[in-house]
Amino acid sequence: MPEPEVVDVAVIGLGPGGEHLASSLATAGLSVVGVDRRLVGGECPYFGCIPSKMMIRAAGALAEARRVPELGGAADVAPDWTTVADRIRDEATDDWDDAVAVERLERSGARFVRGHARLAGPGRVVVSTDEGDREIAVRRGVVLNSGTEPAVPPIPGLAGTPYWTNRDAVRVRDLPESLAVLGGGAIGCELAQAFARFGVSVTVIEAFDRILGPEEPEASAVVHAAFEAEGIAVRTGVGVTAVAHEGAFSIGLADGTSVGADALLVAAGRRANLGDIGLETVGLDPEARAIEVGKRMRVKGAKGLWAIGDITGKGAFTHMSMYQADVAIRDLTGEKGPWADYRAVSRATFTDPEVGSVGMTEQQARDAKLRVGVGRAELPASSRGSIHKVGNDGLIKVVADLDRGVLVGATAVGPCGGEIIGMLVTAVHARVPLAKLRRMHFAYPTFHRAIETALGDVS
Ligand SMILES: Cc1cc2nc3c(=O)[nH]c(=O)nc-3n(C[C@H](O)[C@H](O)[C@H](O)COP(=O)(O)OP(=O)(O)OC[C@H]3O[C@@H](n4cnc5c(N)ncnc54)[C@H](O)[C@@H]3O)c2cc1C
Ligand SMILES: NC(=O)c1ccc[n+]([C@@H]2O[C@H](COP(=O)([O-])OP(=O)(O)OC[C@H]3O[C@@H](n4cnc5c(N)ncnc54)[C@H](O)[C@@H]3O)[C@@H](O)[C@H]2O)c1
Questions:
Q1: Judging by DSSP bridges, how do beta strands 111-114 and 116-119 pair with one another?
Q2: Global model pTM greater than 0.95
Q3: Ligand 2 mean position to 138 CA, how many Å?
C-alpha cells in the first residue's frame, strides 16, 4: 500500500450529516477526506425522504381532488404514476447519480473517495476502491456516518423472492395491482398510502398491536381509521410465518390466514452499518445495534472518534443527522458548545392525516416518573376542522410535567400536523410555562388554535 495520506479529519459515510460536516470543516480550513461506497448524500435524497415525499405530494393531490364532490362540484381523477417516476428520476435523484453532490463537496475543499472505508486502528482508515486499497491517517479524528440498510427479517421463504425494500419502491415505474407491506412503521405507512392513492390494492401487515408504534396510541388509531376508510387493509398484531412467490406473493400469517399480492414491500426497520467498518480495531463491538456517543458526539470508549446520524440510535431522521453534525463540527473546531440536547426531538410522518410529534409520549413521561398531565382537542370539533370538513380527522395531544408547569411532549395529527407541531417544539425546547402558553394569541380559525383547547384540557 502507498504511504498513508495525512489529513485533519476523515469521514466514513456521507449521509446528510456526513456530507454537511465534511464540507463545513473543509470550508473552515481543515483538510478533509470524505468516503462513500455509494452516493454522496446517503439514503435521504436518493432512496428516502425526498423521493418518498414526492410520491406523497402527488398522492395527496389526488386525494384532495377526490374530496371535491363533498365540497364543491366534481373532479375526474386519472392517476398516472409516470409523472411521479419521472420526477423522482429527474428532479430528486438525477437518475441516481451524485455528480452534483460530489462537485459541491469538492468545491468546499474536501476530497472525495468512492469506496468502502473501515477503521484500521486508532486514527487510521483503509479505503477499498476500484483501484485498490489506500490508507488515511488523521490528525484530529475520524467521523462515522455509515447509516443503515433495510432490515430483512429471517422469515422462511422470503430470501430469494423479488421483494422490494424502499430502494426498489422509489424506482418503480410500473405499479403492481396489489401490494403487501411488511411493517407499519413510518416507511411502511407513508409508502402504503402513496401507492394506494394511485389505485394499488394495499395490505399493511404489522406485528405490533398498532401501526406507527412509536407514536401516541391516539395517533395510530386516527391513521389506522383513515387507512381503512381509503380501502387500505391493515392487519395488526399478527406475525408473518412464511413467504412464497410463484408469479405472485403469498404471505402466511400466524393466525392461519394468508395475504396474496403481486408485490411485497419489506419495511420492517433498519440495520445499522456497523459490522464492516473496523470497530473491533479500536476496541468497539461490531455487533452493537448502535454506537454510544456523548453529548459532543464523541464515541464512548474510543479516542479520536466521533459518530453522527442513524447509527447513534438517537432518532433516525435527516434533521437529527444534520443536528449532530453541527455539534461534532463545533467540537472539532474547538468551539465551546452548545452540545447535544434530545429533550425536544421532533418528527413528522407524512401520512394523511399527517403526524407531527415532539419530545415524550404520555407513556414515556409516566415511565420517567413525572407527575403527568394530559390535554386533548379533536380537530373535527374545532372551527377550522368543521370548515375543512372532509379530511379533517385528527387531534392535538399535549403532555405536561405538572410539577414544573411545562410541556414535555406533544402530538399534532391532522392536515399539516407536521407544521402545526412547530410551535409545540418551541414550547418543549424553550420550556415555555404552561401559564404563558395558555395566555397566547391563537389566530382564528386555524388548526393550531386547537392547541389552546388542548392546553385548557390539561389535567
Ligand atoms: C423511505 C424513507 C423515508 C424517509 N423519510 C424521512 C423523512 O421524511 N424525514 C426524515 O427526517 N428522515 C427520513 N428518513 C430517514 C433518513 O433518510 C435518515 O435518517 C437520513 O438519511 C440520515 O441518515 P445517516 O446520516 O445516518 O446516513 P445515511 O443516509 O444512511 O447514509 C450513510 C452513507 O454511508 C455510506 N456508507 C456506509 N458504510 C460505508 C463504508 N463502510 N464506507 C463508505 N461509505 C459507507 C452509505 O453508502 C451511505 O451513503 C427516511 C428514510 C427512508 C428509508
Ligand atoms: N417521515 C419521517 O421522518 C420518516 C419516514 C420514513 C422513515 N423514517 C425513519 O426511518 C426509520 C425506519 O423506518 P421503518 O418504518 O422501516 O422502521 P420502524 O422500525 O419505524 O418500523 C418497522 C415496523 O415493522 C414492524 N415489523 C418488524 N418485523 C416485522 C415482521 N416480521 N412482520 C410484521 N411487522 C414487522 C415493526 O413492529 C415496526 O412497527 C424510522 O424509525 C424513522 O426514524 C422517518
A1: unpaired
A2: yes
A3: 36
> Closest ligand 2 atom to the C-alpha of 318?
3
Pocket flag, ligand 1, residue 274 (CB < 6 Å): no
CATH 3.30.420.40 fits domain 346-456: no
CA atoms within 13 A on the CB side of 40: 24
Ligand 2: lining residues by beta carbon, under 6 Å: 153, 182-188, 190, 205-208, 213, 239-240, 267-270, 316-317, 347-350
- Residue bearing the CA closest to ligand 2, atom 14: 269
Q: How far apart are CA 19 and CA 29, in angstroms?
A: 16
Ligand 1 closest atom vs CA 38? 47
- State whether the beta carbon of 346 lies less than 6 angstroms from ligand 1: no
* ipTM score for this prediction: 0.98
CB of 145 closer than 6 A to ligand 1? yes
pLDDT in tens, the chain (459 residues): 778 999 999 999 999 999 999 999 999 999 999 999 999 999 999 999 999 999 999 999 999 999 999 999 999 999 999 999 999 999 999 999 999 999 999 999 999 999 999 999 999 999 999 999 999 999 999 999 999 999 999 999 999 999 999 999 999 999 999 999 999 999 999 999 999 999 999 999 999 999 999 999 999 999 999 999 999 999 999 999 999 999 999 999 999 999 999 999 999 999 999 999 999 999 999 999 999 999 999 999 999 999 999 999 999 999 999 999 999 999 999 999 999 999 999 999 999 999 999 999 999 999 999 999 999 999 999 999 999 999 999 999 999 999 999 999 999 999 999 999 999 999 999 999 999 999 999 999 999 999 999 999 999
Give the homologous superfamily in CATH for domain 5-41+98-149+271-332: FAD/NAD(P)-binding domain (3.50.50.60)
**Cell match 456521507: residue?**
14
Domain chopping of the chain, boundaries? 5-41+98-149+271-332, 150-269, 346-456
> Residue-wise over 81-104: b if at least 16 C-beta within 10 A, else e?
beebbebbbeebbeebebeebbee
Q: How far is 119 from 459, CA to CA, in rounded Å?
A: 52
C-alpha to C-alpha distance for 15 and 47, rounded to whole angstroms: 12
What separation in Å is there between the alpha carbon of 212 and the centre of ligand 2? 8
